Amino acid sequence: MSGDKVSRQKPCHHCKRRSISAPAGTAMIHYEKSWLYRHCSSLQQRDRQAQKAGQLFSGLLAMNVVFLGSAFISSMIFNHVAITLADVWILLSILKVVCLCWIIYYLLGTSRQPHAVLYRDSHAGPVWIRGSLLLFGSFSVLLNVFQIGYSIIQIHCKSKVEIVFPSIEILFVSTQAFFLWHHSKDCIQVQHNLTRCGLMLTIATNLLLWLLAVTNDSIHMEIESQLREVEQRLAGNETNLCTCPNTTTCKVFQKGYILLYPFNTEYCLICCSVLYVMWKNVGRRISHHHAPHIKPKFKLHGVVFGPLLGAAAVIIGICVFMMYQIQATGSAPNRQVFVMYYSYYIVLLPLMSVCAVVGTIIHALEKRELDTLKNPTRSLDVILLMGAALGQIAMSYFSIVAIVATNPKDLLNSLILSYSVLLIFQYITQNIFIIDGLQREPFVAAIEARHAGHAGQHPVDSELPGEEMTTPRNTQEHTQASPNKEEEVSEEQNHEAHDQRRVSVLELGQEFRRVSLSYMHSYSHLSWKRKALKEISFFLVLCNIILWIMPTFGAHPVFENGLEKSFYGYSTWFAIVNFGLPLGVFYRMHSVGGLLDVYVSA
């Protein structure tokens, strides 16, 4: 704990003597300044050495925990007799309990110490990340509730560990989500080594939970595929004694568990990224130059064609996904549904690639300077984008080799080949566009000019011709100027109520007109470069959302088409798919956050 002592050292009283006035040019002052410089430099050097030592020790701790857990999980896969799933659950439960103890200690002890959180990283833990944590955390909690209910119904063939493990998981997920929501921006200045070890241990636990989820998902998919073949041959004869009873409750728990299962993997990966940024920020001191004076916020302006094209892509994608789920999940998947699925991708992927290339060219034409300040969040975003893309790119190359080696002239095979090539190109172009946009300064000068110009501009309402002729007061006076004297009192009351409804309708239409003109006014005042960047970013956001939805909720044609599975073998292709598919899903979700940052800064 020597790093904690060095990091908590207060500046010595000699450092305050710089402000003491003394006759300039004396030898005594020069000697004192030289000694003070050497003294402060030695303290900073010792502080950096202690920080590097703490990072190295905590990193080694996490590495050993990950290797131990990976050995347990691998042993369970290859020798499920000696190491069972219950043994893995016991190990992970111990890790989660230790992490829970540290998180509670951080919440109640470390963060409440005097001068504990003097700085907060404004780039860490953006709203979309924390919102994703709450969303996927809630789904993970619901997933474990379904797992507990499913195990209780089958208590005659389930062990008690299958009930205890998800119960601890609920407590761990809830506490961790609360911790990351409130403290993801912390730059803790006390207990450096303990905090680093706690963060790294939590990262290792989430990585092992992700690895177990991926492994269990592969086992579930394998069992489901084998059961499908058994149903075709044996016409539904049951061979498993531990089956779900034919009751509504059991079916709900079973279907809910399968539906919510992918969200648990996404939650673990997001937690790892946020915890890593917190680990990098331990002991970090942020100067005032690092804090932006004007932080751009997300506002839906400057986009017209991007939302329209993106909404069309989302709607068509949902229709394709529903038709695929209905036909491809049956006992005999239809060949035409695969042709439709890959055709949708072949149309959408080139459009996304062209937009990304155009956006990269616009970035090159801009005069914005690069953001060279140290930012752990931005560095992690770049690493995650590049690393998560490797999973889907690797799967695409495996598919290309399998198709070229078999029958590339077949219609479905040629579509899969085109899909794989276009997917690789789309990943590369989109990564270049996002990374280039993240490394540039936002349009701060343009934002300041727009805010300053609002004071000197006339309101939008005054620019409208004949605005005074359509105000509610004038309309009401016009309707009341010509009363019908022959009507009775009851009819006059009905007319007054009708006039009031007309006034409210006119007010609503007038407000809609004012908002529309204000939106078009803000759109017309943007330069063509900013318009193009915002349109491209928003379109790519919606496209990545639909490309995230489809594989997340069960569309896995890379396994169900049977081509790669027959070429590489059942077990080998399962391992490839379950390595690349979760990374591809995580990439789509993470790229949405990067594209939103590019949209806001444009």
Automatic annotation (TrEMBL):
Highest taxon above the source species? Eukaryota
Indicate, by first and last residue, each region the UniProt record lists as having compositional bias (Basic and acidic residues).
484-500
Q: Name one Pfam family in it.
A: Otopetrin
Claim: Lyase is one of the keywords in the record? no
Q: Topology versus the membrane, per the UniProt entry?
A: Multi-pass membrane protein
Question: Which GO-annotated molecular functions does the record name?
Answer: proton channel activity
Q: Which parts of the chain span the membrane according to its record?
A: 56-82, 88-108, 128-151, 163-181, 193-213, 258-279, 300-324, 344-362, 382-405, 411-429, 536-555, 567-587
Location comes to: Cell membrane
Report keywords, A-Z: Cell membrane, Hydrogen ion transport, Ion channel, Ion transport, Membrane, Transmembrane, Transmembrane helix, Transport
Q: Does the keyword Transport apply?
A: yes
What InterPro entries does this protein's entry cite? Otopetrin
Biased amino acid composition, Polar residues: 471-483
Which residue stretches belong to region Disordered? 454-500
Q: Name one GO cellular component term.
A: plasma membrane
Family classification: Belongs to the otopetrin family.
Under what name is this protein listed?
Proton channel OTOP3
Protein's organism? Aythya fuligula
Which gene is the coding source of this polypeptide chain?
Answer: OTOP3
